[in-house]
Design a protein that fits this description.
Largest sheet: 7 strands, mixed
Number of helices: 12
Oligomer: single chain
CATH topology of the largest domain: Endonuclease, Chain A
Structural class: alpha/beta
Radius of gyration: 21 Å
Helix content: 40-55%
Order of helices and strands: HHHHHEHEHHEHHEEEEHH
Shape: globular
CATH architecture of the largest domain: 2-Layer Sandwich
Length: 296
Amino acid sequence: MSESESSTLPRRQLGRYLRDAREAANLTLEEAATLMEWGKSTLQRLEKGQTERVRSRVVQELCELYSIDEEKTAALKGLAQQVPAKSWWHSYGDLIPANFNLYVGLEAAARCLTIYQPMIIPGLLQTADYTRVLDRTYFDTDTDTELERRIELKRQRQAIIFRGRKPAAASVVLHEAAIRTLLGDRHIMSAQLRHLANVSTRRNIELRVLPYRAGFPVGLALPPFVLLEFGADAKGGPVEPTVVFAESFTGSMYLERPADVDRYQNAYAVVREAAMNPQPSRDLLREIAREIESEH
């Protein structure tokens, strides 16, 4: 398989995690390369995702050098095995442990997120109480401590769009079903809707509601998806290719072929055009919150 045919995402993700682990271990590129008996450029290429083939043994040695735990080591070795893949489907419980959230690293590097969600409030916009109700059901074997750790992780993820310095831009379309489906009690749901209305006033966040009356703007029911863009380099080109993330009950699909990305971008443009403008969307969120609060 030629380089042009293979997905670059697994090796970019692997490089990103290895770079973060090296920095957490307080090692410079030069120091880590010396300890591996490599040249600095060899490690630099690996961290930038520019190495075409990555041996599991090499990943194991780096993980030992950086004192990475067994679960994360297993995940990174699984990533190394997927480096030659043409497309990348992460099925929970296969090479990469289900508890290792690969998406988090990708999201943290994004400069612009485009989100379509037909049924559930997106994680970046969830209140802690809304998250708690969802996770208590889905992760039903978690202890209270583990559940709170999940909630804290989501809070940390949300910093990408709420931080004071250079927050990522977010364009979000929520189907009306997502804001009318009651989760938890009326206090939790009304607070969630008011939170959405409030954060939608931020300059970097555009939130639109796709009303029931809009029907199916692209001719079929779209699944939830996120488009992740990583900004431009000094020459105006993309730092990394745009990625489409589509999650299902059994795994996650990461798409980066230009034809696939274009199709999702075009679909989002259609639903965004069919959705309500930001201010009417904000008004609807507050109206539904009042309706829920007045229910007995």
